[in-house]
Amino acid sequence: MVNSSMRSYAKKLPFVFIAMMLATEGQTLLAQFEPLPRRDNASMMNLVRPVTEKISGSVVQVYSGDRPVALGTIVAEDGFILTKRSELSGDPIRVRLSDGQLLPARVAAVRRSNDLAMLRVEGDLTLRPAQFAGEIPPVASFVVSVGRKSNPIGLGVIGAKPRPISHQGRLGVLLQDDRTGRAMVRGIFPDSGAEAAGLKKGDLIVAINGREERSRLGVIETLRGMFPGESVRLTITRNDEANDSTTMDVDASIRDLNVMRESESDARVNGPRNVRLSGFDQVMQHDTVLDPDECGGPLMDTKGNVIGINIARAGRVVSYALPASLILPEMVSMLAEARSASR
Amino acid sequence: MHYYITKPSVVGKPQSIAAAIVFLTLGFGAFGPPLNAQSTAVAPTRGDDSSETKLPVPEGLQSILAAGTVPKSLEQLRSLEQQFGKISAAAELCTVSIKIGQAQGCGVIIDGGGKVLTAAHVAMRPNKPATVILANGRRLKAMTLGLNKNVDAGMLQITPGQNEGADWPHATLGDSSKLARGMWCIATGHPSGFDQTRGVVTRVGRIARVNRSALRTDCALIGGDSGGPLFDLSGKLIAIHSRIGNDVEENLHIPIDNYANSWDRLVAGDSWGTLPGFRPVLGVQGNSQVEEAVIDVVRPSSAAKKAGIQEGDIIKEFGDRKITDFQSLKEAVAETMPGENVRVRGQRDGRPVFFRVVIGRGE
User: Fold this and answer.
1) What are the two backbone dihedrals, phi and then psi, of residue B31, each rounded to the nearest 5 degrees?
2) B28-32+276-362 belongs to which homologous superfamily?
3) Do the chains contact at A156 and B184, CB–CB below 8 Å?
4) Cα–chain-centroid distance for residue A272?
5) How far apart are CA B70 and CA A44, in angstroms?
6) Is the backbone of residue B32 left (phi > 0), alpha (psi -120 to 50) or beta?
7) The pLDDT of residue B325 is above 50
8) Does the domain formed by A169-255 have CATH 3.30.470.30?
9) Which of A171, B117, B182, B229 is the most exposed place for a label (fewest CB within 10 A)?
10) Which of B119, B151, B103 is nearest to B342 (CA)?
11) How many Å apart are CA B84 and CA A105, to the nearest integer?
């Protein structure tokens, strides 16, 4: 079986080869073709496989708009799954179970403050939920991320004590009052959602998500409640050269200010990341190299406990997972909400 | 291939320094070949001290320590992670953040008297004041000592009298001559800068490549980590973080023997050499024979061009150095690091002009 870290190794092979050619001091030519000894190489992944197999059947692949966007962790046998909410951008939402079945799903509850969505799989099924348990392991302990077939997809260590991660979600506009006190765009941040949405200097923001905004402060207040990775529908009024005004709706995404400000080479060394990579009540920071679409799945310790759910790939040295102690109460209230709504 | 020095050049808004590669016009050429003087002095004695990072290695991990192999059982894996945990806890006490002006990096205290090892590009210049921040947030006064820029090795001294006579907790110096592919290592540092609520961040990896001037590991580093320590499984300091490539597995560290080999010069505050691929470049030409530092040529897209320096300008001050002729300007640029922000005072048509130059990088 080819696990994900081996896949990524294969992708990087030509690059690795070049790097080794540049520094082969004292090594035989043959040694250049040996895989680099890594902490997450095939032997290490095989070693931790018995750990991840303890939760076989409890991980799904989540598809949004026909694209695999995340993993999901089964939390109730009657078809409830936790995943990363901000990756669910398009319909249809479907999940692929460990046995290969592809099933339609719908969003049954969301918790914006920790970027969690609870999916409900349709059908008469009995699934095997993951049992969250265990304490947060001490710094430098190994943690294993689990894929759909209960295979290890990443291995890393806890890097710091648990802590909250604040966010700086921004639309990316500088506003000023127009003559009537409404919010007028005075400037646009490079690499912001506002720039991507085509906002222009002089545009008036008159409504957000269909709710009228009468003042600059009102706009600021509404936008302040938005997390990175969320999308807002802006109603804007724009005057052209002939002073004819048009009103239109545009969708713009909220991005984290720190990411917008980052230099090109910093973005390059950070590699692919989730858009929602900040704004969590409590996280375990670990150094597992995950792809952004590998969040939503379980994180385990070496004793076989499911200690949390991966919630963001945040940068070159940082992945975040929500700990079991945060997941459990969220899960209970989301299940209650989802079940009462479907009754 | 591209490597980045892992230090944000400006606190709060990290700017990488590798955005542009600037051609060679002004720099270290005048200094001649790098000096290779071997010092006879050795690093401080490696004694037993409870405030050091060295730890006994359990029987069951001896083979992994020596051969750099993978654990054979989950039990051995758990024993390995417990060892990592102990080393990480000890490393936290001696891993420091270093602030010099607007730049931030890391360092590691290596003796009770407060000597700190770091990267040359963090210390930047010898015998200058610096601030050392402990993991608990305590800020200490320090002075930079010597720099071996050929390998990016730097040293600092925490100013005495700041610990009520007690020894500083410090790292046990290791030996990098016996390092081999596959060995496990623990990296600590302050990625993206000091953050009191987060604290020191630990990463674990293995050695992918060893040569005399650099170690490559998969301990993922990023801006802010430069100068931080890399430990082996016995808690001994084996290397100092230096630079990274685009790939998350490309993290380079300075093997510790590079410090031991030029210990006296580093302690004495000497600064020498240039890091391959990180030569500081301004991008101007002038005549060393004339009395003033007159700029004859400004290279297109150079650091000088971007700062607004024009042909005919006379440079009077570069950072805190007075410039008397083109040769002294060359020397002043050679002292900087690529990406560094330098204030420049010049003269144009008899009137003073001011520039802010971001030093370029030459191969």
Assistant:
1) -80, -10
2) PDZ domain (2.30.42.10)
3) no
4) 11
5) 7
6) left
7) yes
8) no
9) B182
10) B103
11) 42
Tokens matching residue B88: 């990480």
User: What count of Cα atoms within 13 Å lies in the side-chain half-sphere of residue B10?
Assistant: 14
Verify whether the Cβ–Cβ distance A139 to B214 is below 8 Å: no
Contact of B180 with chain A, judged by CB distance below 8 Å, is answered with no
CATH architecture observed for domain B35-272: Beta Barrel (2.40)
CA distances from residue A318 to B82, B113, B135, B216, B250 in whole angstroms, order as listed: 21, 34, 19, 19, 16
**Average of per-residue pLDDT values in chain B:** 86
What's the CA gap between A39 and A89, in Å, rounded? 34
Query: Considering the entire predicted model, what is its pTM?
Result: 0.85
Among B223, B213, B292, smallest CA distance to B36 is for: B213
What's the average model confidence in pLDDT over B278-292?
Answer: 91
Q: Which helix (H) or strand (E) holds A165?
A: strand A163-165
What is the C-alpha separation between B68 and B86, in angstroms, rounded? Answer: 19
Q: Which CATH code is given to the segment(s) A53-165+279-342?
A: 2.40.10.120
Q: What is chain A's mean pLDDT, rounded?
A: 88
Report pLDDT digits (tens) over A197-207: 999 999 999 99
pLDDT at B15 over 50: no
pLDDT at A76 over 90: yes
Contact at CB, B1 and A22, closer than 8 angstroms:
yes
Check residue A337 and report its DSSP letter: H
Digit-coded pLDDT (tens) for A13-57: 333 333 332 333 333 444 445 577 899 999 999 999 999 999 999
Domain with CATH 2.30.42.10 in chain A: 169-255
Burial B126-135 (b: 16+ CB within 10 A, else e): bebebebbbb
Give me the phi and psi of A289, to 5 degrees please. Answer: -80, 105
- Which chain A residues have a beta carbon less than 8 Å from that of B220? 287, 289, 316-317
Q: Which residues of A touch B208 (CB under 8 A)?
A: 36-38
Chain B environment of A256 (Cβ under 8 Å) = none
Residues in chain A: 343
User: pLDDT, tens digit, for every residue of A241-266?
Assistant: 788 889 999 999 999 998 888 888 88
Alpha helix stretches (DSSP H) within chain A: 4-21, 42-52, 193-196, 216-224, 257-261, 264-270, 324-342
Note the pLDDT of residue A133: 87
pLDDT in tens, A104-141: 999 999 999 999 999 999 888 899 999 998 789 999 99
Please provide residue A166's backbone torsions phi and psi, each rounded to the nearest 5 degrees.
-75, 165
